[in-house]
């Protein structure tokens, strides 16, 4: 499926957005969020709500969700020796159980320096030794706690909100709000935000309409927020994330297409998993279509125009930040000109933008 429209318009990465349109809280009822439908075949844009999704899709279609679970990876602490403030973000562990993280503080950190980790109430909770400085501004560290990392983070960590939501400062409701209702496998430091719109009732109504649901996993990493800082996006160093497509899910997606249904990715993260699987382990059966097989591993796939999609037919996604790879991925599917028109329409109609905002469905 060739996606970029034959308009001659080059991909774009910048647009102007009034600050007041950046959503700071989700709507009380997630399904009340607005949904812009972009019909590529007709070049048409229409306005709906997330609650309309079951009637906007067709029986036999399949939604694919990302079941990653956001971990409370943001850490606060004090440099034990000086009392200076310290902030960190847990990124994962190595085989020895040592933590990998990025951190910032005033002054220069030194190997073997100790940090006092604070809980959410600001009380000392654990010690952390910074063992070694790694490439890319990362550190190798070791906590003094006997608890598994996930359990300790659940006790003292904070929801790693993007900086455009309250400056990255969480409130108690974010523990619930910045997590999908189908989250299962811990490992993400950012939410797959298209999935935040779904409630259990909406999932039930979708199934009752004859629409199937499958899941993949992609642990969203810190790189998802990395802006494109170069004039030529092809020179942007694409970040890597870990994904998983099981054999059972691959069979479900193949069966949907064989029966004439559409595979509809819920979010750009799902697109990256499925297109990575198609390129690395899939079998091409026709132009724009691959027979999917199980795949697991790291992917740094950078989807941008022009790109021929192999695994998906449509996508539900939020409105994305300027100068990001996500904005280019959306253009690769919807066409740069039509997506430009959609974003201009969203600003005009005062859609709510970014993680807690409204969504678009590209069909």
What structural class is derived from the secondary structure elements? alpha+beta
What is the overall pLDDT average? 93
Q: How many structural domains in the coordinates?
A: 2
| N-to-C series of helices and strands | EEHEEEEEEEEHHEHEEHEHEEEEHHE
SSE diagram, text form:
Layout: E1 34-39, E2 44-49, H1 53-56, E3 62-66, E4 68-70, E5 74-79, E6 85-93, E7 99-105, E8 113-118, E9 124-133, E10 138-143, H2 149-156, H3 174-177, E11 185-188, H4 200-208, E12 212-219, E13 241-245, H5 247-258, E14 263-266, H6 268-280, E15 283-286, E16 289-291, E17 295-299, E18 314-318, H7 325-334, H8 336-348, E19 359-362
Parallel strand pairs: 1-19, 3-12, 3-14, 4-11, 14-18
Antiparallel strand pairs: 1-2, 5-6, 5-8, 6-7, 7-10, 8-9, 9-10, 12-13, 13-17, 15-16, 18-19
Helix pairs in contact: 7-8
Give an overview in words.
It is a single chain. With 363 residues, the protein is of the alpha+beta class. The model is unreliable at 1-7 (pLDDT under 50). The protein has eight helices and 19 strands. A nine-stranded mixed β-sheet has the order 2-1-19-18-14-3-12-13-17. The protein has two domains: 19-70 and 175-362, QueA-like (3-Layer(aba) Sandwich); 74-158, Thrombin, subunit H, CATH 2.40.10. The two termini are 12 Å apart. The chain has helices at 53-56, 149-156, 174-177, 200-208, 247-258, 268-280, 325-334, 336-348; strands at residues 34-39, 44-49, 62-66, 68-70, 74-79, 85-93, 99-105, 113-118, 124-133, 138-143, 185-188, 212-219, 241-245, 263-266, 283-286, 289-291, 295-299, 314-318, 359-362. It is globular. Helix 7 crosses helix 8.
